[in-house]
Amino acid sequence: MQLTKHQRRPRLELKLRHHPDNLHALYRESEDPVERARWHAIWLLATGHSIPQVAQTLGYSTRWVRNTLHRYNEGQPPLLSPELQEAFRQALLQPHPQDGIWTIRNAAEWLSERLGRPVDPRRAWTWMKRLGFAPLRPRPRHRERDVEEGEAFKKNSSSPSSS
User: Fold this and answer.
1) Is the Cβ–Cβ distance between 66 and 58 less than 8 Å?
2) Tens digits of residue pLDDT in 62-84
3) Comparing C-alpha atoms, which of 110, 80, 76 is closest to residue 93?
4) pLDDT for 132 beyond 80
């Protein structure tokens, strides 16, 4: 939408689906920080605060508040249902079927198969973090490292220094 210099954005109205007390409870009980911020914004809007006031209070942009309000009004469900979240958590607790290690790409493929549509690896990473997981990968090693020299260095550096 292109706006000229003096045009204003269309006014967004909150289509309240929850009582403000319930919104406050959802905000206070949410453990996920992103979800918590969204419920906080909706609760503030439901209690009469304007979009700029909510943005300033929460430290987000007015665009973020408008997008959050728009998503709430549309009733857009989260990508993963609670059942699929639990299935994903259980899958991540087991070794990956192919190579034993869950990577972000493996997680995205798993989610894509369950949802029936492509899932971006960044979205899979977000859900892994929300569920308390992180991808494992070995520490980088220099291709031309000398293993013996490294072991000797560790032996010499681990001894307590005498003053």
Assistant:
1) no
2) 999 999 999 899 876 777 888 99
3) 110
4) yes
Residue 161 or 129, more confident: 129
pLDDT at 6: 62
Say how many Å lie between the first and final Cα of the chain, rounded.
Answer: 71
How far apart CA 109 and CA 104 sit, in angstroms, is: 9
Helix 51-58 × helix 33-46 angle, to 10°? 140
Question: In this structure, are residues 42 and 25 in contact, taking their beta carbons and an 8 Å threshold?
Answer: no
> Which tokens sit at 107?
């997680």
85 within 8 A of 131, measured Cβ to Cβ: yes
pLDDT at 144 over 90: no
Q: What share of the chain is helix, strand, coil (3-state, %, to 5)?
A: 55, 0, 45
User: Cα separation of 49 and 55, whole Å?
Assistant: 10
- CB of 73 within 8 A of CB of 15? yes
Nearest to 112 by CA among 71, 135, 80, 86: 80
Structure token pair of residue 86: 């639990």
